[in-house]
Amino acid sequence: MNRLGFLIARSLRDEAALQRLSAPQSALLDDLAGKRVALVGNARALSETRHGARIDAADLVIRINRAPMPMAESHGGRTDWLALAVRLGAADRDRIAPARILWMSPKRKRLDWRTASGPGFYLHPLADYRALAARLGATPTTGAMMIDLIARSDMARLELYGFDFFASLSLSGRRTAKQVPHDFKGESEWVRELVLADRRITRH
Fold first, then answer.
1. Domain assignment of residue 198, given as a range
2. Which of 1, 114, 155, 200 has its C-alpha lying 20 to 30 A from 58's C-alpha?
């Protein structure tokens, strides 16, 4: 598909055509198999830690949206995959330099051609988004969608960093929990239950 075809498919909300640009979910699950995965959220509280070296030591480092990394000591510096629900500016794209971008948002109109045509591009299925939204009873965050996806893989470990469910707000914006359409209390309880049920998952 060329850029014009992409723009037409996006305008017409032609999900089947857009999905043809995506790596299959099975390929991502295969890539996750046997890996120690660090999923890095954007909670401000992460800046007060010294988790950076441990994050970078993971087999696969996944960050979210604009992936703020104020200090290597707390956040590390590697990004293998970037999970997006916002458009990424050129400066952030060059700074983060992910090998694979995953478009997690159901809002296809925000998806840009550079992202969709990039190597390893993945478009998260709307059915998966809707299933998680139904389970949570609210719009899931990008982080929750990634946790759900990774937890369904044969990964060796999933370590969560920077997930305090807006207790310390976010490094990537100034909005409060009341200004975003997510149920952070519900997501926190869901993650707590996942951690209890799956010993591969740890939240730091």
1. 3-203
2. 114
Question: Residue 183: what pLDDT?
Answer: 82
Q: Residue 132's domain is classified under what CATH number?
A: 3.90.1480.20
Angstrom distance (rounded) from CA 153 to CA 169: 29
pLDDT, one tens digit per residue, over 129-175 is 999 999 999 999 999 999 999 999 999 999 999 998 877 667 665 65
Regions of the chain with pLDDT less than 50: none
Dihedral sign for Cα atoms in the order 146, 149, 155, 159: positive
Q: What percent of the chain has pLDDT above 90?
A: 86
Q: Choose among 43, 57, 32, 31: nearest CA to 166.
A: 43
Specify the pairing of strand 60-64 against strand 36-40. Answer: parallel
CA-to-CA distance for 119 and 163, rounded, in angstroms? Answer: 28
The continuous run of DSSP H or E covering 88 comes out as none
Of 68, 85, 92, 67, residue with least CA distance to 145: 85
| Cβ–Cβ < 8 Å for 86, 110 | yes
Whole-number pLDDT of residue 161: 97
Distance CA 74, CA 56 (A): 10
- Measured CA to CA, the distance from residue 35 to residue 29 in angstroms comes to 10
Cα(29)–Cα(182) distance, integer angstroms: 26
